[in-house]
Amino acid sequence: MNMTESLRRNGEYEHAQENPYQNPYQGTHEHASSPVDPEWPPPPPRPTQPPAAPFASFQDGQPEQPREKRRARRGPVALLAAVAIVAAAIGGGTAFGIQELTGGDTVASSSSSTNVVPSSQKGTVSGVASAVSPSIVEISATSPAGSSTGSGVIITGDGEIITNNHVVSGASSVKVTTNDGKQYAAEVVGTDSSKDLALIKLENASGLKAAALGDSDALKVGQQVVAIGSPEGLTGTVTSGIVSALDRDVTVSTDGGQQQQQQRQGGGWPFEFGGQEFNGDTGSSTTTYKAIQTDASLNPGNSGGALIDMNGNIVGINSAMYSSAESSAGAGSVGLGFAIPVNTVKADLAKLRAGADG
User: Fold this and answer.
1) What are 230-241's pLDDT values in tens digits?
2) How far apart are CA 189 and CA 201, in angstroms?
3) Residue 71 CA: distances (Å) to CA of 9, 74, 176, 227, 265
4) What 3-state class would DSSP assign to 209?
5) Which residues are known catalytic residues?
6) How far is CA 54 from the centre of its chain?
C-alpha cells in the first residue's frame, strides 16, 4: 500500500447497493420491470458515520470491521510487524556470528568504533592503559631448551589467553601472572605455528576481564596505537606509537626451542623481512604472515602482548621486533615492530580451541 495514498470516503459503501437492507425503499414496486423514477423515492441522506453493526456484512460468524477502521489499523500493525521481523533477523544473525566466532564461549568482540575506554579518557594513552591493562598477562614458559618470558591477552573471563606460538611451543610448564599480581598454572590448548599463534587456558580462574577484539581490517596507516606487554619481565609496560604500514610479509621461525633460547639470551625474536634475517638465524622451518608494522616500542617479552587502538580494542598480537644490537646489552626497540592482525586471531580461534598442534 502506498502510504501517501489518500482515503476515499465514498468507497466505503460500494457494497451498500448490493445490500437489501441498505435502502429501505428498494423492492417496494409491484412490477420489477417498471422504470424507477429517478426523483422518487429520494436517496437516503448520506450518513456521517460508518454503518451500524446490523448493516455490516458477516463472514464466518464475525462482523466485518468498517473499511475505514481497518485501513487505519492496517498501517501501524504492518509497520510494527515489519520492525519485529527485521529486529529478529538482525538479532539472529548477531547471535549466529558470535556462536561461530567463539564456539559457544563468550569472547568480547567489537568493531573498531566501540569505545572500551571511558568517554572522559577517550583518545588518551592513559585511558587505553587503564581500560585494557587488566586483560594483559605475563607468561613464563619452561622447556628442555630453556625458559622464556612473553605476554598474552585474556579473551574469556574463565582464563582463555591468546599468545604467540613461539612463547609456549614445546613448553613443559606454563605460569601466568595477571595484572593484579595473581599467579596461575596454565595448559596449552592449541598451537598454530603457521600463524605463530597459541591458545592457553588458566587453571581454576574466573571473573577475569576479557579484552575486546576489534577489527584489524579497519586500521589506517598513521593511526595511533598502544602496546602493552612484559618486556624484559617488566609486567604491564605501556608504549605508544602509530601504525607504520599494513600487510607486511614477515617470516618467523616455527622452532619453539630456538625461539625460547633466543629470548633467554635477550637477543629479540629472529625473523625475516625484505629478504634479510634479523635478530639471529630463523632456521630452516619458518612461516610467513601478513603483519601490522608499528613504531610503538617493542622489546623481548612483548611477544604475545596486545596492540590496541585508541578505543581500547585489540587490533593485533605483537610478535616480532627488529634490534640492531649484536648482544643483549644493547638490544632495544628502534621503532620496527610487527603484530599479527586480530582478524587472523579470530579466524584461527576455533582451530586453536579444538586442540590444534602445529
Assistant:
1) 988 888 999 999
2) 7
3) 11, 5, 67, 61, 81
4) coil
5) 166, 196, 303
6) 60
